[in-house]
Amino acid sequence: MNLASGFELDTIEFEALLKAGLEDSDPAIALALLEKGLELYKGDYMPDRRYEDWCIEERERLLVLYLRGAERLARLQVKAQSYDRAIHWCEAIVHKDSCWEEAYRLLMQCHLKLGNRRQAARWNQKCQHALAEEMGVEPMPATQELYKQLSESDVTDL
Question: Which residues form a coiled coil (predicted)?
Answer without folding.
Answer: none
